[in-house]
Hints:
This protein has one domain (10-81). It is an all-alpha fold. It has helices at residues 13-17, 21-37, 46-81. The chain is elongated and about 55 Å long. It has three helices and no strands.
Amino acid sequence: MKNKGMLFYYDWITPFDMLDGDDFKRLVIAMLRYHAYGTKPPRFEGVASVVAQFVFPQLERAKQNAEIGRLGGLASKRKSEE
């Protein structure tokens, strides 16, 4: 089953607070599209570029960890069914 959501981290409060409204909107929409569909993020400028440089790798790690957890859960389920 594919996740229907993604994590936002408290560490992002300060950097996100530094974004203006348009950059905030573009970054959040890009994050959602990246996480849901694997869409490559657009090029950002200024503060949004700096924020994007650490947000997108963190999202990728979260996706990988979720997949590892899902696979581990499937193995445990199979083992318990035997």
